[in-house]
Amino acid sequence: MLKEWSLDAVLIFANDRGYVLPEDSLVDLRQLPKGTLAVLKNWTLDAAQKYEAAFRAVNNNQPAN
Fold first, then answer.
1. What is the Cβ-side half-sphere exposure of residue 33, based on CA atoms within 13 angstroms?
2. Which residues fall within 8 angstroms of residue 21, CB to CB, at 6 or more apart?
3. CA 18 to centroid of chain Cα atoms
4. Contacts for 15-20 with beta carbons within 8 Å, 24 or more apart?
């Protein structure tokens, strides 16, 4: 029997690193004292890849490290 796999992913970026976290319906953005937390609402590989593409689009094609 095949199981559906999900991706447990949380993206955290410090405000002073120069990255922009895009606002997207795929994530909840929360401000922290020293950064921004982006939590995927739908923890699937497809959602992670779509948010990665949105991130790259607003950050000069830099990967989300």
1. 0
2. 11, 13, 27, 29, 36, 38, 55
3. 15
4. 19/55, 19/59, 19/62, 19/64, 20/58, 20/59
Q: Which has the higher per-residue pLDDT, 43 or 16?
A: 43
* Cα–Cα distance for residue pair 39/33, rounded to 1 Å: 16
Which one is predicted more confidently, 18 or 12?
18
Give the three-state DSSP class for 48.
Answer: helix
Domain boundaries, the chain: 10-58
State the pTM of this model: 0.69
Instruction: State how far the Cα of 61 lies from the Cα of 43, in Å rounded to an integer.
Output: 23
**Residue showing tokens 């939590």:** 39
